[in-house]
Amino acid sequence: xxxxxxxxxxxxxxxxxxxxxxxxxxxxxxxxxxxxxxxxxxxxxxxxxxxxxxxxxxxxxxxxxxxxxxxxxxxxxxxxxxxxxxxxxxxxxxxxxxxxxxxxxxxxxxxxxxxxxxxxxxxxxxxxxxxxxxxxxxxxxxxxxxxxxxxxxxxxxxxxxxxxxxxxxxxxxxxxxxxxxxxxxxxxxxxxxxxxxxxxxxxxxxxxxxxxxxxxxxxxxxxxxxxxxxxxxxxxxxxxxxxxxxxxxxxxxxxxxxxxxxxxxxxxxxxxxxxxxxxxxxxxxxxxxxxxxxxxxxxxxxxxxxxxxxxxxxxxxxxxxxxxxxxxxxxxxxxxxxxxxxxxxxxxxxxxxxxxxxxxxxxxxxxxxxxxxxxxxxxxxxxxxxxxxxxxxxxxxxxxxxxxxxxxxxxxxxxxxxxxxxxxxxxxxxxxxxxxxxxxxxxxxxxxxxxxxxxxxxxxxxxxxxxxxxxxxxxxxxxxxxxxxxxxxxxxxxxxxxxxxxxxxxxxxxxxxxxxxxxxxxxxxxxxxxxxxxxxxxxxxxxxxx
Length: 546
Ligand code: ADP
Ligand code: MG
Ligand code: MG
Known about the structure:
Its EC number is 6.3.2.3. Its cofactor is Mg(2+). This is Glutathione synthetase. Pathway: Sulfur metabolism; glutathione biosynthesis; glutathione from L-cysteine and L-glutamate: step 2/2. 32% of the residues lie in helices and 22% in strands. Helix 6 packs across helix 7 (232-246). The strands form five sheets. Strands 3, 5, 6, 17, 18, 19 and 20 form a seven-stranded antiparallel sheet that branches. Strands 7, 8, 9, 10, 11 and 12 form a six-stranded mixed sheet that branches. By secondary structure, it is of the alpha+beta class. The chain has helices at residues 16-32, 65-86, 89-96, 107-122, 163-180, 199-214, 232-246, 255-261, 299-309, 319-324, 327-332, 338-342, 361-369, 400-403, 407-414, 437-443, and strands at 36-37, 52-53, 56-57, 61-63, 129-140, 149-156, 220-224, 250-253, 262-264, 270-272, 280-287, 314-316, 374-376, 419-422, 432-433, 453-456, 465-469, 481-501, 508-525, 538-541, 543-545. It has two domains: 7-79 and 124-328 and 467-545, Rossmann fold, CATH 3.40.50; 373-457, 2-Layer Sandwich (Dna Ligase, domain 1). The structure holds adenosine-5'-diphosphate (ADP) and magnesium ion (2 copies).
């Protein structure tokens, strides 16, 4: 699409007095509405004493209405796609497994897969799974081009965060508008251009659906959390909504707590036993931990993870769904014919036996339109098909090391300036960008190439600026707004409840329910390759539709 909106003119000008009023309103609003974090500390006290406001932007980020609506529409298809990937054991063994796939060379992936394989051999007790997803996008406008499109950064299947804080930033920006009219500096500021954000209720509706499917009213939902987590309020808002609107209690535990509190009885029921109360039955396990190797410092944490998974509680996500969220899966989906395995447009989606989730060519094309080029560093074919202007680019050659490299690695050297390399990790800070790529490839043991993908860089519109307020409590820029050139990443939340259903003989794998439930914007300084609110590179933001 093309738009008459000029990104380079954003944000509209403010004088210092106006800006100060907005900063004061924004920071006090954030603190009084739980748009907050725990402060950075070597060790968090057991009972928190204080909170700081989340890093935030003063103005919402401009997003074209058609692209926002397109992202919302895509979410329903992605919900079904990733649910089906998680139900396709054969595919996941092939791509992520420790015998044939990435798990051979990536120890973390290998450990998760091996535990899952053992579970399958022993007999899975709960075939229903819940995914709370977030699909992330950047606007894409290659240099010199008018056309603007939406490209997917990644699809998260575990610990997708910032849903509830995002709702609060949207409310903050509406408050700033209500209080000041944003000083009439932009005609785009009007209520119909601030899209609603009800992500808290939306995500909770997924957890409630799983709880109801489990079918025991007084069971509780287990939140598995990290020790020392600073983003606790984002999680607590889900807990409050569950209790206040649905009368469902939550128990928060770390892997370390669970090593002594969790047990699975002969009926496969998961129980949590705490010192002061009788054992509590768990309906649903919501993981806000377990997505990174540092959550598993010893064998004991893997043992705990698989103990939980062995029970009849519904996992959000299961190990299978966590593996489905791997960057390798995202890349393999771009190979010809792979998407059709999951969303077959030929016969009313006969493969999956679900008339209600039948997708046609139009939807498959729309998904593919949202992707940029990707390939595996260990692959020989298909290594740079969509790199613009690459057809005549020579492959790197010269040293004997390079000459024996797979085409995927050689091509990553040649096109380094336009690429990011990604391993199978979550949580930010793991990728290798542009100029750093060749030296990185020199040190990467050849065996480990299979764990990395190369991805074309998305090129967001140039010249967009914003006022960013870093987290409170001093430090560089603390408490003041920094006007800087920015890139905004849009996330769309969705969920799916899926698994096997039906009588023993006629079991069907299906998506029982799925929904698109809200959105998030994170805005980062242009100079930073990587975003990451928790890791300090970016701020929470919202949307003004343009
Ligand atoms: P993680 O799972 O660790 O969040 P991501 O794939 O989201 O990993 O990458 C982290 C960040 O790197 C993104 O938020 C985005 O800012 C940047 N990034 C990732 N892929 C691309 C890309 N293809 N083009 C431009 N920026 C990217
Ligand atoms: Mg990400
Ligand atoms: Mg991620």
